[in-house]
Design goal:
The protein is an alpha+beta fold and 394 residues long. It has helices spanning 10-27, 39-63, 67-134, 140-166, 174-184, 193-223, 241-252, 267-279, 285-291, 312-323, 338-350, 356-363, 367-376, and strands at 2-7, 224-230, 354-355, 380-385, 388-393. It has two domains: 8-225, no CATH class; 241-299 and 310-393, Winged helix-like DNA-binding domain superfamily/Winged helix DNA-binding domain (Arc Repressor Mutant, subunit A, Orthogonal Bundle). The chain has 13 helices and five strands. The chain is elongated, with a radius of gyration of 42 Å.
């Protein structure tokens, strides 16, 4: 069995890379502002690929029979994800607190600007009253009071412009408060809104990190797929002296055709067989000769295999081998059953791999019967792609 990792979805892989990069950025978010790069940051970054690889490998290893290694990978996945969630959650909580402090400072500046506007308007009102009292008759005193009133009004306009630039008063807990109010309306929720709000403030930053970490692992698993290739290897059988003598008798007398027995094929015959299977249509001897290396090997595989004339000794030898259950290319292969021949013809006509379920549907048999038939064919190759078993001729 050989293990391969193939790409299934480039979109999922791209999303997983984005989530991983986001995790690394959150982990190093304090380096650019208040902290230096420390070994703790390096260890945290090392936990990111560890969590991804362990999460991708845990279940395939367990289902593949390597239970202890798979459980170890599963433990690494849980531990690395929990550690990254804790560290990133701390960073997110610190960011939320810093944001709250900035909003509080901005609100304080807005309050001071509002007080300045109130004081400026009061000054302007007083100046206006003095101007009214002084300007009952025109004179130098009236002109001075009018100038003070104009200056006070200019100051009012300046303070109001400054206040408008600062914006409205912000509430850093407005979103949490609205969500807590919505949650309190749900049936079965008896906690007070204040308690719900405090719980949301603590839980939401951590929940966002957990979703990011698990999202990276799941998206990588969805983007890649594990493929296990099963090669049918026929081990050399244990033969008795009687079986060896029977096989030598059959080989020396040269029987031909699938109704008797066949010896191992030569390299040229195997090359021609692959050429005919790939072409999917008949060809002349000259056309085949131009595509193979050795022309001298063409005479044997291009014979017409009709019903051979076998001697009684050959029939007896073959019956002896079949009765004793000899298998493998070193001896002889028993004739394929009608179902196996039908499946082999189906695979040759399709010219592409198919699942066992597809083969069973095409032959109008059950999956178990299809599995029984493909196991009879000696040159078949079975490839497991995910949970599906693909079969094709070798």
């Amino acid at each position: 069995m050989s293990h391969h990792t193939v790409i299934r979805s480039q979109t999922a892989i791209g999303l997983a890379l984005a989530l991983s990069a986001l995790t690394c950025w959150v982990t190093l978010s304090d380096v650019s502002s208040v902290a230096d790069l420390t070994p703790a940051h390096a260890l945290t970054l090392a936990a990111v690929p560890l969590a991804i690889f362990a999460g991708h490998s845990a279940l395939p290893l367990i289902f593949g029979g390597r239970v202890l290694v798979g459980l170890g990978m599963l433990a690494l996945t849980v531990g690395a994800t929990a550690y990254l969630s804790a560290v990133s959650g701390i960073r997110n909580t610190a960011a939320v607190e810093a944001k709250g402090k900035r909003i509080a400072e901005a609100n304080a500046a807005r309050v001071r600007a509002g007080n300045d506007v109130t004081a400026a308007r009061t000054t302007h009102t007083d100046a206006k009253a003095e101007e009214t009292a002084e300007c009952k008759r025109v004179g130098p005193q009236c002109d001075r009071k009018t100038g003070r009133t104009a200056a006070a009004w200019s100051h009012v306009l300046l303070t109001e412009a400054t206040r408008q630039q600062l914006g409205a008063i912000e509430d850093p807990m407005a979103g949490y408060r609205a969500l807590a109010e919505l949650a309190s309306l749900a049936p079965g929720i008896t906690a007070e809104r204040g308690a719900i709000e405090r719980g949301l403030v603590l839980a939401l930053p951590w929940l966002a990190v957990v979703l990011c970490e698990l999202g990276a692992v799941v998206c990588f698993s969805a983007g890649f797929n594990d493929r296990h290739t099963l090669s049918r290897i026929l081990n050399k059988p244990t033969t008795t002296p009687q079986q060896e003598a029977a096989f030598r008798t059959v080989s020396d007398q040269g029987p031909k055709g699938p109704e008797t027995v066949s010896g191992p094929m030569s390299a040229g015959a195997l090359t021609l067989r692959r050429l005919l299977m790939d072409s999917g249509q008949p060809m002349t001897v000259s056309e085949a000769a131009s595509d193979v290396t050795s022309i001298g090997n063409l005479s044997t595989p291009l014979q017409t295999f009709g019903q051979p004339a076998t001697t009684q000794q050959q029939k007896t030898a073959f019956q002896t081998l079949a009765a004793q259950g000899v298998k493998g290319p070193e001896t002889v292969s028993a004739p394929l059953s009608a179902g196996a021949l039908a499946l082999r013809r189906l695979l040759m006509d399709s010219e592409q791999p198919m699942t066992v379920s597809q083969a069973a549907q095409a032959m109008a048999v059950g999956p178990s019967e299809a599995s029984k038939r493909w196991r009879e064919i000696p040159d078949i190759v079975a490839v497991r792609v995910g949970r599906k078993l693909m079969i094709s001729l070798g």
